[in-house]
Amino acid sequence: MKIFLDTAGLDEIRTAARWGVLDGVTTNPSLFARVGGSYDDILKQISEITPGPVSAEVVADDVDGMLREGRHFASLAPNIFVKVPMGEDGLEAISRLAGEGIRTNCTLIFSANQGLLAAKAGASLLSPFVGRLDDISQDGMEVVRELVVMVETYDLGAEVLAASIRHPRHMTEAALAGAHIATVPLSVLKQMIRHPLTDKGVVQFRRDWDAVQAADQARAETANEPATP
Ligand code: E4P
Description:
The chain is of the alpha/beta class and 229 residues long. The protein has helices at 10-18, 29-35, 39-49, 63-76, 88-99, 112-121, 130-135, 140-153, 168-176, 186-193, 196-224; strands spanning 2-6, 24-26, 54-57, 80-85, 104-109, 125-128, 159-162, 181-184.
């Protein structure tokens, strides 16, 4: 499963890239609002940090506006994927952008049927929002599971990108469900790295190592002491 970072924060993206686990980045208007500045500049810089897909989201609510924004984003870097919200206009924009060779990520998917339609329209990435469904007491991961089966059964040529990931268990479940990609905040990635037994083990190994070094040192010092007459 590929791992994307769900952020517009350059430092966070550089951190995940240094760890060697970064396959791409997803942004959205809310994530961009947290960092501010120029969305274009940020997208260009992200696209230089990672050669993987970088999602840039349109905010227009009509087809022409989505196409205009989508073409502009796609001109910024070769690895930009245009993020288009699910809906009638969104499907048309996805279909037309696909016709122009521009890759899209259909966002705000909350049912497998929505994902099926987005794939049929030509979306390259399908983003079911797991956490937001969990928030309203539905099983968000079920949409991922269903969509993966649909995409693979009918060879729809799209990848399922588990989004709105809130905790490490979501990542495990997304991987087991066969999600092709999961996009995750850096905080969740950090949680995935840590385990109390790992921390405890590192401390213990270091303590045992230091004890041996100290014993060796004491032995050497004793051996070098002049013999008493
Ligand atoms: C990613 O493409 C989505 O924009 C993101 O995962 C949404 O996550 P949230 O529900 O935590 O805002």
